[in-house]
Automatic annotation (TrEMBL), chains A, B:
Entries under InterPro entries matching the protein: GntR_C (IPR011711), TF_FadR/GntR_C (IPR008920), Tscrpt_reg_HTH_GntR (IPR000524), WH-like_DNA-bd_sf (IPR036388), WH_DNA-bd_sf (IPR036390)
SMART domains documented for this protein: FCD (SM00895), HTH_GNTR (SM00345)
Any GO molecular function: DNA binding
Keywords: DNA-binding, Transcription, Transcription regulation
Protein name: Transcriptional regulator, GntR family
Signal peptide: none
Residue ranges annotated for the HTH gntR-type domain, each copy included: 3-70
Keyword Transcription regulation belongs to the record: yes
Gene3D superfamilies: GntR ligand-binding domain-like, Winged helix-like DNA-binding domain superfamily/Winged helix DNA-binding domain
Domain of life assignment: Bacteria
Length: 216, 216
DNA sequence: ATCGTCATTCTTGTATACACGAATGTTGAC
DNA sequence: GTCAACATTCGTGTATACAAGAATGACGAT
């Protein structure tokens, strides 16, 4: 239970949305939520406000809050932006790499290698996140790091779906290898290019995503 | 006065912060704000919550809200990300340009030409905004458009400072010309490259910015 | 004189009460 | 039977009251 009820509720409701417990399009009734969590409406409203700012729900004045349904097209757009930001992070990381960042990338990369080798999709999902976060941090740009982390978080559920696709694990890891090489070689342009294609969802990978979304 | 007091207050306080009426580092007392705007603390808290999510203030639990002081370095980082996003918008615009977007860009571009020719810095400041927004819209990516608009808004005060620098008006406009040419020619890579350097603040332009910030 | 401890005060965090607009169901007319 | 107007209900928006933690100042000890 976080420092105050409002933030705790924000996380709680956010998780519920990201895990599809609250379905896209569903209306979130303040009183119902307040009862469910055993608090008053005030912190519930604060939590909803924050979720609105993050973009997970939409608060229509006097008409309540509904869970936003991004839809395949918008998700594609979000990945498109994510790819661009990660590309920037990679190119900066290649230029500014220091010892600590290098070690962090190496560590998370080898953890990815283990889980990919073991074919453990869930473990890879987690290690992959850490790997990407290490690259954000290596960019040495706090603002970029924050933006990347925020968008990464919002795309989390779809990324998870992606990993389920056959062979994606080993493909993803070999792409990681090339990315690490480029960054460690100080080749910013190459790191940018590789990360862009690694993160972006083009062609059949997009159809795969849509298919797995439709499957739920 | 917007649809509800909370959002109105958000805009009101946001403007006060962006216009330096509330100085960076300053503490924002809920009761004081409530009295000042003649409302209760409830909508004030809602507004502060939203500003926290936007990143303009920081709410420290049980210790009140303070206006964030980005500092030159972080502002540089924000421009760096802005440059990247605008570059993406430009490259997408070049690929996806349709009649309506083409006309919107042409219209705003020629308005920039007028105000730049007249040496009217304030008018150019406004027309320039519209020009960039036209490019965001031309990208045909709603998410990217929103992200660009949000960051653009947050960088507004510093952009204004930049334009004060000698000769920046005509330099900016000639860069616009090249950008328009690249987009209309369908040359996405060129548009991206030009926008990145147009938006970014490298070298002496960064020192200029820091200098004008220190001058206040 | 300085530092630590305790009490007081002030501000934030949460709950509750009230007001107002939107949604909905009912009744009547065509 | 269908549609429209009105009344009622329900939920959001705002204000106020209360609780609890943090900042501040005074007092005492070293």
């Amino acid at each position: 239970m976080s420092e105050n009820v409002g933030r705790w509720l924000r996380d709680e409701i956010e998780n519920a949305i990201l895990s599809y417990e609250f379905a896209p399009g569903e209306r979130l009734d303040e009183t119902v939520l307040a009862n469910r969590f055993g608090v008053s409406r005030t912190p519930v409203r604060e939590a909803l406000m924050q979720l609105d700012a993050i973009g997970l729900i939409e608060i229509r004045p006097r008409r309540g809050a509904i869970v936003i349904d991004p839809g395949p097209h918008r998700i594609y757009e979000m990945f498109e932006v994510m790819a661009e930001l990660e590309g920037l992070a990679g190119s900066l990381a290649a230029r500014r790499l220091d010892k600590a960042s290098r070690e962090a990338i190496t560590a998370t990369h080898s953890r990815c290698e283990q889980s990919a080798g073991a074919g453990d999709s869930d473990a890879y999902y987690y290690d992959n996140e850490e790997f990407h976060k290490a690259i954000y941090a290596a960019s040495r740009s706090d603002f970029l790091e924050e933006q990347c982390a925020q968008l990464h978080r919002r795309l989390r559920p779809y990324r998870r779906l992606q990993l389920r696709v056959r062979n994606r694990l080993s493909t993803s890891f070999s792409e990681h290898c090339a990315i690490v090489d480029a960054i460690f070689a100080g080749n910013g342009d190459e790191a940018r290019r590789l990360l862009r294609t690694h993160v972006g969802i083009q062609g059949e990978r997009f159809s795969d995503l849509v298919a797995s979304m439709a499957a739920r």
